[in-house]
Amino acid sequence: MKTSKNFLFAAVGLSLTNGIPVTAQNNIQDRKPNVIYVFPDQFRNHAMGFWGEKGFKEHVRFKPDPVITPNLNNFARESVVLTSAMSNCPLSSPHRGMLLSGMYPDGSGVPLNCNSDRPISSLREDIECIGDVFKKNGYNCAYIGKLHVDFPTPNNPEAPGTYVNNDTPVWDAYTPKERRHGFDYWYSYGTFDIHKQPHYWDTDGKRHEIREWSPKHEADKAIEYLKNTGNVRDTSKPFFMVVSMNPPHSPYRTIEDVMEEDYNLYKDIPLDKLLVRPNANPQMEKAQCAPFYFASVTGVDREFGRILKALKDLRLEENTIVVFSSDHGETMCSQNTDDPKNSPYAESMNVPFMIRFPGKVTPRIDSELLLSSPDIMPTILGLCGLEKQIPAAVEGRNYAGRFTGKDSSVPLRQGALYIKNIDGEKDAEGKVISYFPVARGIKTHQYTLSLTIDRKTKTLKEALLFDDLKDPYQMHNLPLQENHEIVSELCRQMVPLLKEADDPWYKEQILKELIPYEG
Ligand code: CA
Questions:
Q1: Ligand 1: distance of its center to the CA of 298 in Å?
Q2: CA of 192 to the centre of ligand 1 (A)
Q3: Phi, psi (rounded to 5 degrees) for 291
Q4: What pLDDT, on a 0 to 100 scale, did the predictor assign at position 31?
Q5: How far is the CA of 204 from the centre of ligand 1 (A)?
Q6: Displacement of CA 461 from its chain's centroid (Å)
Q7: Nearest of 346, 352, 475, 473 to residue 418 by alpha carbon
């Protein structure tokens, strides 16, 4: 067959390499890569099986969760895998704001989880986000799944003047076209947690009520986009597709939250065998969630695998960058807290981060890079050769050269900033009109430090200090006074991070007796 094809092409003045006409190959080489960014919610770095395997386990100080993740395990072998990607403000909306804008929460406009009581927390319309940059540079951009960066307003497309639901406050939101930041294909919602009854608004604002597990449905939509079912994209252009899956996300309590086939893998395992971290308490009521959490992880793994298979079958694999990450982790009975996130603990801050780019990114494990959420946007743009298009306002760093191995001149930070905000003042109607920066801290390769201040006096109220090398499960909170040299070094390292983030702690010089703002 090949001979006859060669003959055929020779007859029209073309030659074949690897079965593709040379002129077409030149086009492929000139063409910008596609990007698929898949990020489930509340998926901690520890919940990937490969961390227990040879070649990986030597790079981390934890025992992975007993999860079944065959697709992620294979993907890791084809990717650059970070051990220490950090979600700086490990909460849904703030991370998503940083991911899309490349800016810390003060710049993105999203310091708090978005709901209708918090008009001060909403992705700014006047900034250039990652989709805007891709769109401007000739990409088709698709957003599928959970967005959760918009302040809900009464803009229900089916009933103008009303909210999309009747909760108080309203959490879910509809994002109209003018707020989509370059995404020209839309199949998304704000936030909603009935995992087998999800809904989405499409590009034209039509609402779709679905009766199946949301990651499965979202993978189906992603595969349709790849296949260009319904002619939804211009195949002469590269694409940037975000797939934001909600599970693993609470509730994980019943078979209504997960796929039964996944639950069956974990249901008979005793809780103390599922919760393998020595800092976890299987006596907590929440421990009942563990089999459902891990079932969600396995389900997400399968749906991610289906997207990868479609990419391969469609022969789009070679020129497509695929990233797998999460918005933040899940404590899941570690540290005796019911709060899955919004804390400086490793289970909450440390997220998966893997990039596959065949032929451009050599698979390896990078345990030096403490990636911060605002670095993701400039790094992805950099990998697509759009480094000159990174908006000047971006605060994150472009580590593309580090991933490709071509340029390691972008300096590594000594740590990742930890950020926790709470509601500040409220107006007469109960709407939040400011936020309070209640805790800041730093995660370095050796230490985790978090400083919480009193709301009235802004003096130190509480501190956490862990030696993550000696105590990887963070079971011994070290007293500040006895470790004042370590604390003062960590506080010194926080200054450039607070400055880079244009953070209120830097502007107000909060805890200046501890943090040497003026050098
Ligand atoms: Ca989240």
A1: 18
A2: 11
A3: -60, -30
A4: 87
A5: 26
A6: 30
A7: 346
Strand locations in 221-347, DSSP E? Answer: 239-244, 320-325
C-alpha 325 – ligand 1 centre gap (Å): 12
Determine how β-strand 435-444 pairs with β-strand 415-423: antiparallel
d(CA 138, CA 237): 6
Question: Degrees (nearest 5) of the Cα angle 215, 216, 222?
Answer: 85
Largest CA distance in the chain: 83
What share of the chain has pLDDT > 90, as a percent?
A: 93
d(CA 55, CA 139): 36
Would you state the structure tokens that stand for residue 291, as one six-digit string?
Answer: 């089999």
Q: Are 16 and 6 in contact (CB under 8 A)?
A: yes
CA of 146 from ligand 1 middle (Å) equals 9
For residue 92, the CA-to-ligand 1 centroid distance in Å is 3
Give the pair of three-digit tokens for residue 388.
């000159």
SS3 140: strand
> What average pLDDT score do residues 416-424 get?
98
Total residues found in the chain within this entry: 519
Q: Report the DSSP pairing between strands 364-366 and 350-351.
A: unpaired
The reported pLDDT for the residue numbered 55 is: 97
CA 429 to ligand 1 centroid distance, Å:
27
pLDDT digits (tens, 9 = 90+) for 97-140: 999 999 999 999 999 999 999 999 999 999 999 999 999 999 99
Give the Cα separation of 7 and 476 in Å (integer): 73
Tokens coding 202? 């499409």
297 CA distance to ligand 1 middle (Å): 14
Distance 42 CA to ligand 1 centre (A): 5
For residue 43, the CA-to-ligand 1 centroid distance in Å is 9
Q: Summarize pLDDT for 267-324 with one digit per residue, the tens.
A: 999 999 999 999 999 999 999 999 999 999 999 999 999 999 999 999 999 999 999 9
Distance 331 CA to ligand 1 centre (A): 12
Answer positive or negative: Cα dihedral of 191, 294, 422, 122: negative
- Ligand 1 ion local residues (Cβ < 5 A): 41, 92, 327
> Ligand 1 centre and the CA of 113: distance in Å?
9
